[in-house]
Design goal:
Rossmann fold, alpha/beta, binds ligand BJW, SIR2/SIRT2 'Small Domain', single chain, 10 helices, binds zinc ion, 6-stranded parallel sheet
């Protein structure tokens, strides 16, 4: 590691240690080291389709079997993945400190799993930690497109989306597609946390997809600072007080001293 990197890490650690309120925004990059493919970039492709072509209500209407197959493939893949040291460092931060709000765009549930594992390691017998805020939903759930009933997704190679047991309408994954509104309670809570944060720690997101990408901007507008962790530069890099370039599974534990 270069001296410059070491200084940047120390600076990030200091900003976070001095903060009263912290909001963390994560994206697909934090799960990349767990083996979950990202959306954009060369490893982010699925059979030559781009997310913009599959993660839309129009794609599901046009070809439900194709979109369903993509989700079943991803569900199978995610089932074989485990949280990495980045997820664990964030889970410990949120469990051990007050004033931390963890917001994720990821639908893979790995933050939840890391939190459960850390909570049991720390010996807390309480209920499952109430984080993160999953602003784009959760891939392990299905939602009925008719009656909105939520069910646990069942893995398998069904030829297309199954029907709802209650109303027979088509099931769909409980995720947010392009052009769909995010749950106003969930994104609203994330926006409040971003506005009240002294530091917004942004990790592993291309910071392109709104409204989630607007969360660090809210912290900046309210006078807070941004710390970014990403392999590459993003549209946010120029406005970050500290921008660390490298794998989040290595950098987050270093920054968070975990
Ligand atoms: C590492 C790493 C390692 C790799 N360590 N780093 C302006 C213009 C045009 C359109 C819009 C606009 N403003 C808003 C919109 C619409 C649209 C949008 O933002 N489009 C943009 C692309 C321009 N937004 C929406 O449609 C949203 N809804 C909405 O606006 O509703 C309005 C409305 C209101 C009222 C009624 C109705 C409507 C919804 C967005 C939903 C996004 N959904 C998806 C799919 C979720 C389900 C699924 O998983 O299948 O969410 S798309 C996909 O992108 C997914 C992700 O959560 C999201 C963000 O991606 P992310 O996480 O940043 O991943 P990548 O792959 O892009 O980046 C990975 C990063 O990690 C890279 O930077 C790497 O360098 C880095 N990395 N390995 C550290 N080891
Ligand atoms: Zn139904």
């Amino acid at each position: 590691m270069t001296t410059e990197n070491r200084e940047q890490i120390a600076h990030a650690t200091e900003l976070l240690a001095d903060a009263r309120q912290i909001v963390v925004l994560t994206g697909a990059g934090v799960s990349a080291e767990s083996g979950v493919p990202t959306f954009r970039g060369e490893r982010g492709l699925w059979r030559s389709y781009r997310p913009e072509e599959l993660a839309t209500p129009e794609a599901f209407q046009r070809d439900p079997a194709l979109v369903w197959a993509w989700y079943q493939w991803r569900r199978g893949l995610i089932a074989q993945c485990a949280p990495n040291p980045g997820h664990h460092a964030l889970a410990r931060l949120a469990l051990q400190r007050d004033g931390v709000t963890l917001v994720t765009q990821n639908v893979d549930g790995l933050h939840h799993r890391a939190a459960r594992e850390e909570a049991s390691r720390l010996g807390s017998a309480g209920p499952e930690p109430a984080f993160p805020l999953e602003v784009h939903g959760a891939i392990h759930r299905d939602r009925c497109s008719g009656c909105s009933r939520l069910t646990e997704a069942i893995p398998g190679d069904d030829p297309g989306p199954p029907g709802c047991a209650t109303c027979a309408a088509q099931l769909r994954p409980d995720v947010v597609w392009f052009g769909e509104a995010l749950d106003p309670d969930v994104i609203g809570a994330a926006q409040q946390a971003a506005l009240g944060a002294d530091v917004c720690l942004v990790a592993g997101t291309s910071a392109l997809v709104y409204p989630a990408a607007g969360l660090p901007e809210l912290t900046l507008q309210a006078g807070g600072t941004v710390v970014e962790v990403n392999l590459d530069a993003t549209p946010l890099t120029a406005r970050a007080t500290v921008s660390l370039h490298g794998p989040s599974g290595e950098l987050l534990p270093l920054i968070l001293g975990a």
